[in-house]
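Changelog entry

Holo records now carry the ligand SMILES as an explicit input line rather than a separate metadata file. Below, a converted record for pyridoxal-5'-phosphate, shown in the new format.
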Amino acid sequence: MEHVMHGRCTLCDRTADTEKHLTCPSCGEQGILEIEYDYVTMKQTINHAYFQNNVDPTLWRYRPMMSLKDTDFTRGLYLPLTPLIDAPRLARDLGINALRLKDETRQPTGSLKDRASAVACFKALEQGATHVACASTGNAASSLAGNAAKLGLQSVIFVPERAPKGKLAQLMVYGADVVRVQGDYKAAFTLSKAAIDHHGWYNRNAAINPHLVEGKKTVALEIAEQCLFEPPDWVVVSVGDGCTIAGVHKGFYDLKQLGLINRVPKLLGVQAEGCAPFALAHETQQNLVECEENTLADSIAVGIPRNPVKGLRAVKRSNGAFVRVSDEAILEAMKTLGKTEGVFAEPAASAVIAGLSVALKTNLIAPETTVVAIITGNGLKDTDSANRATGEAAHLPADLPTLIAHRKDRDNHA
Ligand SMILES: *Cc1c(COP(=O)(O)O)cnc(C)c1O
Ligand SMILES: [Zn+2]
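Structure line, unchanged by the conversion:
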């Protein structure tokens, strides 16, 4: 945090001390802050040599570019640099020359949210907190609970009724204090806010807490490093609250300010057809309006996104776009991703593949461009959706002739 200058309000443009305020003192709750760095001094130490000589194989190799004090990060969960995988079979299937997958299913609790939750927990420790709390559609909660457990912090979690079983199971195993709020994400968010104010817990609600975007941006820093500072033309990411895509933009933006990359990739934000407030606002150039949450992709079922300004800006400033995908296309993409590349993604993560397919079909993305798709969460968290995508396994008696007949039938179909 030695390079942090201040937070700048995304509404009124005033600055505030992010060590004292989570949101803008003038605008209140809606005044989400964006952390700004002194790139002139940061440049003196954060350069190509810094990355070449840095042997830290975890997310904390980027700590001097973040809003955290240096500390013993080995006390927390191990946050690996996740692989950037060539996906030639999937690329062929989609009709694109080069596609790479940033595999966030391998994070310690199984989603990209670990990048933000780890930051939240260390920030909470900096401030002497004993409790951390959030409302979440699932992954923010399970990652907060896991990261908090490792650091000996108590997590208090508010989830909507519809949270998938796998994510709830994670919460319970990590020892979180879990409240399943009757109603949707909006209801869970509102109650969490009131409870956090009342008890003085550390607030991990991603949109409100500006440090979390700083955690999420590390995914872009990693992608850039893995591409040897020649970023792809497009980066595809699914969008719920808008914090992830804002983080992706921030990471590339920082690198550009430091002169380490020449351009920020175009960002393709993917939303579910049944819940696409960002896509609508982007197309109509209007303010974001609340909508229903009609999609099985629970991690992006966000009817009132809490980070509208940052999310919309990220896409706009990158000259990117939004696309919408149906639940059927998401389930189809889940199967394709698993079958071609051996990656098992949850619906919100599979959505990027469906979104890329739409972008290719509509000539938004040309087949000769280079693309990185961020696979944000692990499919094991939501096996009900996976079962819907694939159907049931064959159920046969232990009898070879029956098996042979069955196989023949399958091979004919193949
Ligand atoms: C949270 C999440 C997203 C979307 O991130 P937002 O910050 O809400 O836009 C996408 N995929 C997965 C798996 C997530 O958990
Ligand atoms: Zn303000």
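Spot-checked after migration. The mean pLDDT is 94. The domain at 84-110+212-390 is CATH 3.40.50.1100 (Rossmann fold).
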